[in-house]
Amino acid sequence: MDKGEGALRMEKFQESMYQLIVETSTKLPKDVRRAIAKAKLRENAGTRAAMALTTIAENIQMADENVSPICQDTGMPTFKIKVPVGVNQLKMKEAIHRAIAQATKDGKLRPNSVDSLTGENSGNNLGDGVPVIKFEQWEKDYIDVRLILKGGGCENKNIQYSLPCELEGLGRAGRDLDGIRKCILHAVYQAQGQGCSAGFIGVGIGGDRSSGYELAKEQLFRSVDDVNPNEELRKLEDYIMENANKLGIGTMGFGGETTLLGCKIGVMHRLPASFFVSVAYNCWAFRRLGVKVSPETGEIQEWLYQEGENVDFAKELEKAAQSVPAEGREIVLEAPLTEEQVRQLKVGDVVRINGMMYTGRDAIHKHLMDHDAPIDLNGQIIYHCGPVMLKDENGNWHVKAAGPTTSIREEPYQGEIMKKFGIRAVIGKGGMGAKTLAALKEHGGVYLNAIGGAAQYYADCIKSVEGVDFLEFGIPEAMWHLRVENFTAVVTMDSHGNSLHEDVEKSSLEKLAQLKEPVFK
Ligand code: SF4
Predict the structure, then answer these.
(1) Ligand 1 mean position to 71 CA, how many Å?
(2) What is an example of a GO molecular function annotated in this UniProt entry (predicted)?
(3) Domain range spanning residue 323?
(4) Cα–Cα distances in Å, from 287 out to 32, 55, 199, 326?
C-alpha cells in the first residue's frame, strides 16, 4: 500500500475535517451527555442549579436541531493526529486550515484568532499557532484525528502547582500522592463557577511546565466512562469525583450537588528538582470528538466516542417542564431600567428581560473608560457576550450563538463605566469582584448571571439585531444592539451589597478545609 506523498486524497480529507469540526462544535459526545443527564438527576427540582441544568439541556437540544455552535466561544481548535508513516503531514495541515476557514465562514466556529500585539482578529480562525495541530506517527493503517474545542473561560481556570506548596484551606501539599490530591481539590475550588461548571478536569502529574500541561490536556481525550489502568490513579480519580462534589459550588457556581462531571489523571516522569501538578479545566460544553480516516481516500471510516446510550434531552425537558418553578422570585423586566426597579432586585431572583441590551467585552470596556459611548446608555443593560454573527446577502446580521462571557475580566472597568453612563444592569457569567459590588450599591445597579455556554438558548431569545458599533474591534468585541424577549438570568449581585458568588466561595472554602486530613500515604 503506497501511503507516500499525494496518496491521501486531500480534497476528501478536507471535507472529512470540515465534518469533524462542525460535529464537534454543534453536538456533544454521548459520554458527556450522560454525565450532564446524571448531574441533572442529582439536583433537587426547583433549585437554581436544576434551572441552570435545564437551560443547558435545552441548549444542547437546540444546537443539535439547528446544527449551530453549542457555545459561542468555539475555543482553540486543537487537533491530535496519529498518522501511518509516509502520509504527507504538510498537506494535511493545509487541508485542516482550509476546513477551519470554511467552518468559520459558515458560522460553525466564531472568529477566535487574535494578534496578541495588535489585537486584530484574523477573521478566519487562522494565525500564528492557530489552530493547534499535533502529529504523531504510528504503525496502524489508518489516520486517527481527535479534536477538542476548549473555550477561553475554562482555559483561564487551568492551574499548575509546583510541589511542595501551601494551599488555601488545605495547608501544605507535599511531594506525594496526598499532596497531589490536595492540588486537584484546590483546582476545583479555585475555578468556582467561572469555567462554566459543572466541569471536567484533566490532570497531569510530573513533566516540566509545558509537558505537564500537555499531559493534563491529553487526559481530556479520554472517555468520561473509562477506568484508569493505574490502580493508584483510579482510586484518586474516584476520590476526587466523590469529594469535589461535596464543595457545593454547583452548576454556574449557583450552589448545588454537582461541581465536577469527570476527572482523569495521567502521570509521567519528572526532573528531581521539579514536581508539577497541572490541571486543565473544561466546562460542561466539553466539545471533543474523533474520527478514523482512510489514509488513501481521506474518508471518515468511523466516529469515535460513540459507545453507550445517547441521552434524549427532548424527553428530559418534557419532564422538567412539569417540575416546580425555580427557588426565589421571578420578575419580568422591561429595558431600559430605572434605579428604583433595580434596587428592588435581590440575590436569588430570577429575571426575564424584554427590550434592548448591548454587548460589551474587553475592548469596549477599555475604550469607554476614556471615550464617549456611541449611544445613550442611561438605564440600559450591558451584556458580556461575544456572539457568533452571520451577515446575509442583504447585509442583515443574524445571531448564530450568544451566551455570556466571563465577567471578571471587566472588573477593573465595570463600576466606573456603570456610573459614568448610567448603566443599570450587566449580564455575564461567573460574577464580579468587590469593586463592582461596591459600585452596584452606590449607583443602584445589578449583576445578572446568565447560564454560561447556553449560546443557542440565548440566541433564540434575541428577536432582532438593531445595530452595531465598534465593528472594527472584530465581531466578538463589537457592540451589538440586540432586542430580546424572555431572556432569563439570575440576580447574583444586588444593590444591597449581597453577592451569591462571595457566599458560595466562602462556604466552599469551609468545605474544602474539611478535606485537609491526609487520605493517601
Ligand atoms: S461553556 Fe463557558 S467556559 Fe465553556 S466555552 Fe462556553 S463560555 Fe467558555
Answers:
(1) 6
(2) metal ion binding
(3) 1-151+289-327
(4) 9, 18, 12, 28
Q: Do 299 and 355 share a domain, yes or no?
A: no
pLDDT of residue 239: 98
User: Which pLDDT does position 366 carry in this prediction?
Assistant: 96
Q: Which three cell numbers stand for residue 418?
A: 456603570
Does residue 131 lie within any of the structural domains? Answer: yes
pLDDT tens digit sequence for 52-84: 999 999 999 999 999 999 999 999 999 999 999
Pocket lining for ligand 1, CB < 6 angstroms: 71, 73, 75, 151-154, 195-196, 283, 285, 403, 452-453
Which three three-digit cell numbers place residue 422?
Answer: 448610567
Decide if pLDDT at 209 tops 60.
yes
509 found inside a domain: no
Determine, yes or no, domain membership for 515: no
3-state secondary structure 498-517: CEHHHHHHHHHHHHHHCCCC
CB 111 within 8 A of CB 87: no
Report pLDDT for 4: 46
Q: In a 10 Å sphere around its CB, with 0-12 CB exposed, 13-18 middle and 19+ buried, how is residue 229 labelled?
A: exposed
Rg (CA), the chain: 23
**Which residue CA neighbors atom 5 of ligand 1 most closely?**
151
Q: What is the dihedral of CA 352, 358, 363, 366, to 10 degrees?
A: -90
